[in-house]
Structure formats: C-alpha cells, structure tokens
Amino acid sequence: MHRKDLLDKINNYSPEDNDEQLFRANFLEFISNNKNCFERSLLKGHITGSAWIVNQTYDKALLTHHRKLDKWLQLGGHADGETDIIKVAKKEAKEESGLSNLRLLSEDIFDIDIHTIPERKGIPEHLHYDVRFLFQAVDHVPLLINHESKALKWVPLKELNQLIEGNRSIMRMVEKTAIYQQ
C-alpha cells in the first residue's frame, strides 16, 4: 500500500456518522498535501494504524491502558514510514499484546479518527490520523504487556463505556462491531 492506495481506501470508505464524514475529508486533504504523511517527523500530524481486536464471539474487545496518555485505547501506533497501514496495525497489535493469532477480518477500513496528541517531551501537540482495521483473536491466551502499556484487558463490549469514560471514537467501533457480526 502506498499513499495512493491509502487515498483510494479512504475514498471508498463509507463514513457512519457526521464525525467520520469530516474526518474522511480531512484525511484526503492531509494525505494529498503531505507526501511524508507516514513519517513521525511530520510534526503537525501523521498517519497511524490501529487494530480493533474482538474475540471469537464479538462480545469483547482487547484494550490497552496506554502509559503515556493514561487512557484505555485500542492497540496501534505510528507508521514510521511504512505505507501499508494494515501491516502497521497488525505489527503494533502484536508488539503491544504478544498475540500471534491475530486474524484480519477485512482489508477494508473499519473506522477512521483524527485526534489530538498533547505536547510531551519537546514534541509539540499534533494530530494522529488513525486508520483502524478489524481483527479477531482468541481471548483466553496469555497477553504480554510491553513498556507502552500499564495494562491489557479483554473488556465486554457492554461494559466498555464505563472504562473508556464515554470516548466517542471507541464507542463508534463498538457500534460497528454489533453491525459487523450480523
């Protein structure tokens, strides 16, 4: 996947709500205007890849308690020059969870989000243009927590809202999971 491939995927993506419609337009403009959009060195923002990981029965999602942001989030991270965002999402999910049994459920984009990352250690506040893909994994194998996480947890989807404190971005993926499994 290259910049054109990601543009094509986002062009073909069907937003679920007004937020995603705006995100889609902003993604297209950002990628078109920034050849180095996959590089962390682009300080105004950059492309990231995430894995929304559900269990075999689609009733739990794997979340990480992110050490730097101190929030429960889906697994994922920086592209660091890699243009295949599915590869980024899978690599980051494996590194952050120790799971080797990840199964990509669709090569289509599952969700998109643009969120602000606060200034930290001399890196200015910037945007993450996050492309998310749907994965599945067995929820009874041991998880390995790496240095980026305080904790990892399979969370029942019906209990997730309390843990994520109403994070609309994650709740949108919960809603999409219910539709996907039908």
Automatic annotation (TrEMBL):
CDD domains given in the database record: NUDIX_Hydrolase (cd03674)
Family matches, as Gene3D superfamilies: Nucleoside Triphosphate Pyrophosphohydrolase
MF term (GO), any: hydrolase activity
Alphabetic keyword roster: Hydrolase
Nudix hydrolase domain mapped to chain residues: 44-182
Record keyword Hydrolase present: yes
Keyword check for Membrane: no
Name used for this protein in its record: NUDIX hydrolase
